[in-house]
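Kindly review this protein for my students:
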Amino acid sequence: MTIKLIDPITDPRWDKFVENHPFGWICHLSGWKQVLEKSFKHMKGYYFALLDNSGNIQAELPIFEVKSWLTGNRLVSIPFATLCDPLISKSEEMAILLEAVLEYSEELKYSYVEIRTLAATSLMQDIRLVNENVYKYHYLSLENELEEIKNSFPSKTRYNIRRSMKGGLTVKQAENEKDLLSFYDLYCKTRKRLSLPSQPYRYFKNLYRYISSVGKGDSSFGGEE
């Protein structure tokens, strides 16, 4: 097997592999690369693929170069993603991918490599990896019926839902830039209330352009950011 850097935007093999892998999700896709690189000038993605002798992808690991005066220069898989499991099926694949990434990191003289994983943890037993449980993940299982999910919420949350519904609150999917600007205004107000910085508007605009509108033929948001 050989390691190759793939451009997922021009090579359809990457997204096809993501869509068929049990660990694959939205942040592995080529659209995420476009969102990050067009929104943040200090980030650049490198997509490592493990190929067999026939050129078929057997495993993947996307890594982003992040240059920051605050946190230091490093490689991350992947920025702005809560999780980004290596797309592997056995520990041997992880060892080969890790070797390539560490060589690249050493060449750039970067301080460390960060891989955010959950589902693939059991396959990542390489002694060169250090486990750091410094993050908390918040997620909600949608496997049960709607009423069961609602009943699992704390009483205060259920009360706030009922109150919002009685008050006529509705949910609308953004269809144009005016809708997106309305969302961004609410987002910034919420972040300010929580004393948290807001991501730039171009990040959300690119999320819509390269993720939300994919396959919908929507070009109403104009040019790239």
